[in-house]
Amino acid sequence: MRLRRTSIAATVAIAVLAGCSGGSSGGGGSPLEKTNIVVDAFPAIDSAGLFIAEQRGLFKAQGLNVTIKLASTSQAAINGQLAGTYDITSADYVTYVDNALLHKAPLRIVAESSVLQPNVLTLLVKAGSRVQSVQQLKHQVVSVNAPNDIGTLLVDSLLTDNGVPLNSVTFNNNVAFPNVGQELSSGKVEAAFAPEPFVSLDGMQAGTEVLADLDQGGSAGFPIQGVAVTQSWARANPNTLAAFERAYTQGQQIADTDRSAVELAIEQFLGLPKLAAALVSLPNFPTGVDPVRLQRLVDAMVRFGLLGKQYANFKVSTIIGNG
Q1: pLDDT at position 13, please?
Q2: For the chain, where are the E strands, in sequence order?
Q3: Do the beta carbons of residue 225 and residue 46 sit within 8 Å?
Q4: What are 112-131's pLDDT values in tens digits?
Q5: Residue 197's closest CA among 264, 259, 271, 256?
Q6: pLDDT digits over 197-210, tens only?
Q7: Could you give the CA distance from residue 131 to residue 170 in angstroms, rounded to a whole number?
Q8: 20 pLDDT exceeds 60?
Q9: Calpha distance 153→305 (Å, rounded)
Q10: Hey, is 268 helix, strand or coil?
Q11: Which is higher by pLDDT, 112 or 1?
Q12: Rounded Cα distance, 76 and 96, in Å
């Protein structure tokens, strides 16, 4: 488990600044177009910065009343966003890019949520599994929680780095993370893609073991989850979006420097027991948006066939912010 730097002075300064910037102007001197917004987030530790911003009143300090919903899948969150049910979503980048390019969805990535670190995303096997190495996954069934999403991409990268032909592995594409332990125990799948907190929970409850950490080789330090709005929403609500981003950035800064704050947030929003929250491995929680980092993801999607070759020269910067 990684030790994180804690900057109490910086956190206090952030809170003081936030507390001085309340009101309908959003702390930026311009009136907010909307003060009540709904965020639909995939329920993962990747959203800790979002949870902290709500838990600590950072959104309220910007004049925003934020309601956080938890999505069943990233695609479900985006579907609701495109239908106008949600103002903002937090989901995995693969699903955002897939929707923006293949389905022409008018999405814009406005913030990063998480960057992969050791033991956060893994391949699990049951205790005593006959599969003891990545090479032994040839001709086996591996589960992911949705087809052609971040799990597929990371597992493809792992298999390729270990010389396993992608066509030799069968994907079971719809195994929800809470069901991973059961699917492994039943023998329906030989290995399963799983993120924290399920890595820790399944180890504690079902005795699962980590076959491979996905933070390695071509996917080391990989961008995982971000925040997006639609173009039309951003145009209609520029001051509201700016206020949201200010508070969200403060939440990310706290998440990346104060592990105890993350633990409290995921206990509340993800319903984790205190012990599990204390054991989980955490990603990095960056601020802003790094187009170079996100371009890695697009290039990998092309390499592993999640995007066609016609997108080989696509620049992710065109769907970041105002594009």
Answers
A1: 34
A2: 36-41, 65-70, 88-92, 107-115, 121-125, 141-143, 170-172, 191-195, 209-213, 223-230
A3: yes
A4: 999 999 999 999 999 999 99
A5: 271
A6: 899 889 888 899 99
A7: 15
A8: no
A9: 9
A10: helix
A11: 112
A12: 11
Nearest-angstrom CA–CA distance, 267 and 43: 12
Tokens representing 45 are 């530790």
Domain residue limits at 85: 8-115+223-319
Per-residue pLDDT tens digits for 202-233: 988 889 999 999 999 999 999 999 999 999 99
For residue 256, the domain's CATH number is 3.40.190.10
Query: Is residue 2 scored above 70 in pLDDT?
Result: no
| Domain assignment of residue 197, yes or no | yes
Looking at the structure, tell me whether residues 293 and 230 fall in a common domain.
yes
Q: What is the pTM of this model?
A: 0.88
Crossing angle for the helix pair 150-161 and 291-303, nearest 10 degrees?
70
Query: Is residue 1 situated within a structural domain?
Result: no
Residue 262 lies in a domain: yes
User: Which of 219, 236, 270 is the last residue in one of the domains?
Assistant: 219
Per-residue pLDDT, 25:
65
Task: Please give the torsion angle defined by the CA atoms of residues 125, 90, 93 and 146, in that order, rounded to the nearest 10 degrees.
Answer: 40
127 and 209 belong to one structural domain? yes
233/296 same-domain check: yes
**In the prediction, which pLDDT does 162 show?**
96
